[in-house]
Amino acid sequence: MNNLLSATEAIVQISTIICLVAISVSLILLLYRIINGPTNADRAVALDSVGMNMMGLTALMAVLLPSTKLNDVILLIGILLFIGTLAIAKYLEKGVIIDRKLD
What we know:
Elements: H1 2-36, H2 40-64, H3 69-94
Helix pairs in contact: 1-2, 2-3
């Protein structure tokens, strides 16, 4: 039984490290898309994807590290990502984020 448990822990460690490397490569490619995006909409989608990848990295670190505090960080990133996506969408649609009506 101990052999099965140690083999399972080794598989989880190896697969988590492989996923960390894959997400890191994805972040590098998304950074390229943010810098050289042909349109602002492409940049916004890439920025949103970077946020989701950061959530994934944090989740993988929560698997590796024995801490429950990273779960709160994942939720915080998700909330900020949602608010940022709304702001970028409004900016792309209207050109301003906050409408100020001076009457």
